[in-house]
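Q: Here's a chain of 179 amino acids. Please give me its 3D structure as tokens.
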Amino acid sequence: LIAYLIFVVLFGIVGLSAEYAIGRRTRTGTLGSYEYAWNKRGLKKVGRVVGWIPLAGSFCIALGYSVVVAYCLKALVQTLTGTLMTVNTQTWFASFSEVPYSVMPYHLLVVISLRVGPEGIEKSNKILMPLFFILFCILAIRVFFLDGSFEGYEFMFRPEWNDLKNPKVWVFAMGQAFF
């Protein structure tokens, strides 16, 4: 957790500051920013090609998250209707792969809602991000009162100082923070 927090702060300060600075300087998107940066070295065409790498990565991440959001939306609808409370959770999760197209309507709804543009995304984030934080706090409080939760919190927050000498800990922490 210590290594992870170090990378979160590092990426937050250095990475986001650089990204904001380049974006403001170029007043373009990802491709234009990479083209501008590589053009300073006389390699404009390389920048145009390299700029597609983070764009493709963002696209793939968005595809993955749209599926996760569709699962969550399906769970929300079935919780509100009461059907989720009456089934075995293993059976319910298995139904995602056993019942053809069971998540498709929810996924289509998510994909259609992504078409709202930057203004709509910004407006929805002003509501959804604080709501996510509130739900996370409620969940943390609920977990705190479960049997054995103290041992779990102790395991999570007790530092293992010797592990900081392990390079894999730093690599994994950096991967998680970057993700």
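Q: Can you summarize the key feature?
A: The mean pLDDT is 83.
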